[in-house]
Design a protein that fits this description.
alpha/beta; TIM Barrel; 8-stranded parallel beta barrel; 11% strand; globular; binds flavin-adenine dinucleotide
Length: 449
C-alpha cells in the first residue's frame, strides 16, 4: 500500500520498500503501484508475454469456464479456487462481496484515481451472431414473453442495484444490456421495444444512480444489437441528461466505419432536443466476431478515427458542428489502453484550456489489471499546484468487474485473450514491471546497507 503522505515528500519512502526521489513525473509510471499489486502484475505479465506459458494458461481457464470434471469446478475444488482467487481474480476483479469490492475501490482511489467504473460480472451468455436464443417465434409466444415476468431480468435488476450501492459520487456504473435476458437480446437485435419489465428495471437503476450521484455507461456490444442499444441509450439520455451534464453515456466504437456518421446523427438529435450527449469512446472489442466489411480496413484506420473523434469533441468542432451549426452540450470519456491516444488528448485539452478556447470536458479509463503504465502515467500528469492546473489535470478511472469467482471466470478468459492479442503492449508492460521490481529490490538493499 502506498504511504498516504509519501507523494508530497520530495524523496518519498513507501511502505512497500520503494524509495522515490525527484519530481514524480520523472519516475517510471509503475512506481505508483502498491507492492502487492506490482508483484501480482509481474506474475500475470510474465504469463501473458510468454506464449509457452500463456497457451496452457488459456486452455486451463477455458476448461475452468466450462467445467466438465468436478476438480475443474471452482465451486468444488478449494485448492483451484484459492490459486485462481489470489492470482488472476484479484488482479482483474474487484471482489465477490460488497465489503471486498468497496475495499478495492478505496485502495484504487487512494492511489490517486478519480474514481471507478463498476460492472456486475454475472450475465447471461447469448450468442448474438447466430441468434441462438430462445426467441419467441409465434405471436402467442411474443405476447406471453411481454406479460410473463422474467426471473433473469429481475436477477439482473437486483444485481445492478446492488452494484449502485457500492459506488459513490462521480463513479460510473457500466451496463451490459444483453446480460439481462434472451428476450432483451431479441428486442435489441430486432429493433423492437424492450420488454416492459426491462424498461422499469432501467428506470429503477437510473433513479437510484442519480440519487447516489453516480453516472451510467451503456456498453457497446456486437453490431447485431448495437442499433437497438443506441436507441435505448438515446432514450435514457433524453430523459436523464437534462441539466447541462451527462448522467448517461452511450459507447461509440471507433473501429466501425459507420461510427463517425452515427455520432454526427446523435449530435444532431442532442442539439435539436436539448440534452447533453455523453460520449464514451472505445476502439471496439468484438473485432473477431464482426463482419469484416463493417470495420476499418486497418488498425491505423481505427486509430485515426479514434483520435479524430476525440480531438473533434474536445475542440467542439466535428463535421459541421462547431462550424455551420452550434456544437451541442457533450461530455467525453476516453476508454482506452492506447498511450498515444490518451496523451494526445491530454495535451490538446491542456492547450485549449490554457488558451481559453471552447473545450469539452474529458476523462480517461482503463480496465483493472491492464495498461497500468497508461493509467499511472496519466496520474503522474496531475498537477495540484493551482486551481487552473488542477482543472486541466487528467481525471483517471479504473474499470472493475465484481462477482463470485465462478461468475467472473468468463471475464478472466476475455482479459487473458485480450492480453494475448495486444502482444506488443503486453511485452512492454512486462519489461517495465520487471525494471520497476528490480528498482525496488535495489532500493531495499541500498537502504539496509
Ligand atoms: C474502460 C473501458 C471500457 C470499455 N468498454 C467497451 C465497450 O463498452 N464496448 C466495446 O466494444 N469495447 C469496450 N472496451 C474495449 C475497447 O473497445 C478495446 O477493445 C480495448 O480497449 C483495446 O483498444 P485500445 O483503445 O485500448 O487501443 P489499442 O490496443 O491500441 O487498439 C486495439 C483495438 O484496435 C482495433 N483494431 C485492432 N486491429 C485492427 C485492424 N486490423 N483493423 C481495424 N481495427 C483494428 C480493435 O478495436 C482493437 O480492440 C472498453 C475498454 C476500456 C478500457
Amino acid at each position: 500500500m502506498l504511504n498516504a503522505d509519501c507523494r508530497h515528500d520530495p524523496r518519498w519512502l513507501c511502505r512497500d520498500g520503494s524509495t522515490v526521489s525527484g519530481p514524480k513525473d520523472q519516475l517510471p509510471p509503475h512506481s505508483l503501484l502498491p507492492g502487492k499489486m506490482l508483484w501480482r502484475s509481474l506474475l500475470v505479465a510474465t504469463i501473458s508475454s510468454h506464449p509457452w506459458l500463456l497457451t496452457p494458461a488459456l486452455r486451463t481457464l477455458s476448461l475452468i469456464a466450462h467445467p466438465r470434471l468436478s476438480f475443474l469446478d471452482v465451486n468444488k475444488n478449494a485448492i483451484l479456487r484459492g490459486i485462481l482467487k489470489t492470482t488472476f481474480y484479484n488482479h482483474f476483479c474487484a471482489g465477490e462481496k460488497a465489503a471486498e469490492v468497496t475495499g478495492t475501490i478505496d485502495r484504487i482511489k487512494h492511489m490517486g484515481f478519480r474514481g471507478v467504473i463498476l460492472t456486475y460480472a454475472r450475465e447471461i451468455v447469448v450468442d448474438a451472431s447466430s441468434q441462438k436464443v430462445n426467441n419467441p417465434t409465434t405471436n402467442n409466444e411474443k405476447a406471453n414473453a411481454q406479460t410473463t415476468k422474467s426471473p433473469e431480468v429481475e436477477a439482473w435488476r437486483q444485481g445492478v442495484l446492488e452494484t449502485v450501492e457500492m459506488v459513490g459520487t462521480d463513479d460510473f456504473l457500466a451496463l451490459k444490456l444483453t446480460g439481462a435476458d434472451p428476450q432483451v437480446m431479441h428486442a435489441l437485435s430486432s429493433n423492437q421495444p424492450l420488454p416492459e419489465q426491462m424498461i422499469f428495471a432501467l428506470q429503477d437503476v437510473c433513479t437510484r444512480a442519480i440519487e447516489r450521484n453516480t453516472r451510467i455507461f451503456v456498453d457497446a456490444e456486437q453490431q447485431s444489437v448495437q442499433s437497438g442499444i443506441d436507441a435505448v441509450a438515446l432514450d435514457l439520455m433524453r430523459r436523464y441528461n437534462r441539466n447541462g451534464t451527462a448522467v448517461v453515456y452511450n459507447t461509440y466504437q471507433a473501429y466501425l466505419k459507420s461510427t463517425p456518421e452515427n455520432l454526427l446523427s446523435h449530435l444532431g438529435i442532442a442539439d435539436k432536443e436539448g440534452f447533453t450527449l455523453g460520449v464514451k469512446l472505445v476502439r471496439g472489442a468484438y473485432i473477431n466476431s464482426e463482419p469484416r466489411h463493417l470495420i476499418n480496413d486497418t488498425k491505423q484506420g481505427t486509430d485515426d478515427s479514434y483520435n479524430a473523434i476525440a480531438a473533434g469533441i474536445l475542440r467542439r468542432q466535428y463535421g459541421f458542428f462547431g462550424v455551420e451549426r452550434q456544437f451541442p452540450s457533450a461530455e467525453l470519456f476516453l476508454a482506452t489502453h492506447n498511450k498515444e491516444s490518451a496523451l494526445a488528448a491530454d495535451s490538446l485539452y491542456k492547450e485549449r484550456l490554457a488558451t481559453g478556447q471552447p473545450t469539452t470536458k474529458v476523462q480517461y479509463g482503463q480496465l483493472l489489471g491492464m495498461a497500468d503504465e497508461v493509467s499511472c502515467r496519466l496520474l503522474q500528469l496531475r498537477d495540484d499546484s493551482s486551481q487552473a492546473a488542477q482543472k486541466a489535470s487528467p481525471e483517471v478511472y479504473k474499470c472493475l468487474s465484481w462477482g463470485t469467482l465462478g461468475d467472473c471466470v468468463s471475464y478472466l478468459l476475455r482479459r487473458a485473450v485480450e492480453n494475448r492479442d495486444a502482444v506488443g503492449r503486453t511485452k512492454q508492460e512486462y519489461y517495465a514491471l520487471k525494471t520497476e521490481a528490480r528498482r525496488r529490490i535495489k532500493n531495499m538493499f541500498s537502504l539496509r546497507w
